[in-house]
Design the sequence.
């Protein structure tokens, strides 16, 4: 009986130690992830075949439209648009004049998450024969987006163009608890995606079934 209790205590202690190690490693990874979040656009000048905006806020779309009007790419592709929303509606939300850019915008309605964004964009890029894109998404979302896009399109040149939402303005975003919570959740998603890619596991579905109603413009 005493021997059994000793073994149980030993196993319990090892389990606690393993859990503490995992928490420590996760915390260290989170610190690295937060510290290395982009705080500026590193390359704002290189022209690409396309600009790709991932939906999730009107600021991203506004940045993408401005880049298009500056001649940074031939076309703008907006991935993850909610069904029933057309180009005119997107331009109205972004407060842009349809006549200037409407001809050069394509919308993707199939993506339901970042994996779906990458798959949907890969198909569109292949249809257009494009080999380079400028990726526009939130700063905290950029690392995972690049991981998924590079995995889906290994032969395509991708130029990151982070957007800085109001709660993520450098350098003081980390002072807000809500921002820290978002970054912690995003780090966990990035870690899961990285492990999936490294292990060669199939990606879970990221494409909306036909006929689903994803809701409004923002997440």
Sequence:
């Amino acid at each position: 009986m005493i021997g059994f209790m000793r073994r149980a205590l030993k196993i319990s202690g090892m389990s606690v130690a393993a859990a503490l190690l995992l928490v420590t490693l996760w915390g260290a990874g989170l610190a690295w992830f937060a510290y290395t979040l982009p705080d500026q656009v590193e390359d704002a000048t290189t022209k690409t075949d396309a600009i790709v905006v991932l939906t999730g806020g009107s600021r991203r779309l506004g940045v993408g439209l401005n880049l298009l009007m500056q001649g940074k790419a031939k076309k703008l592709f907006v991935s993850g648009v909610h069904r029933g929303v057309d180009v005119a509606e997107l331009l109205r939300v972004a407060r842009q004049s349809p006549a200037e850019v409407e001809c050069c915008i394509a919308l993707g309605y199939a993506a339901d998450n970042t994996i779906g964004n990458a798959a949907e964009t890969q198909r569109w890029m292949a249809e257009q024969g494009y080999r380079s894109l400028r990726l526009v998404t939130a700063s905290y979302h950029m690392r995972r987006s690049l991981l998924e896009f590079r995995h889906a399109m290994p032969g395509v040149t991708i130029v990151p163009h982070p957007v800085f939402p109001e709660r993520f303005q450098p350098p003081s975003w980390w002072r807000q608890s809500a921002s820290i919570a978002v970054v912690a959740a995003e780090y966990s998603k990035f870690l899961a995606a990285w492990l999936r890619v490294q292990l060669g596991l199939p990606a879970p579905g990221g494409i909306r079934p036909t006929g689903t109603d994803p809701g409004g413009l923002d997440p």
The radius of gyration is 21 Å. Residues 2-35 form the longest helix (34 residues).
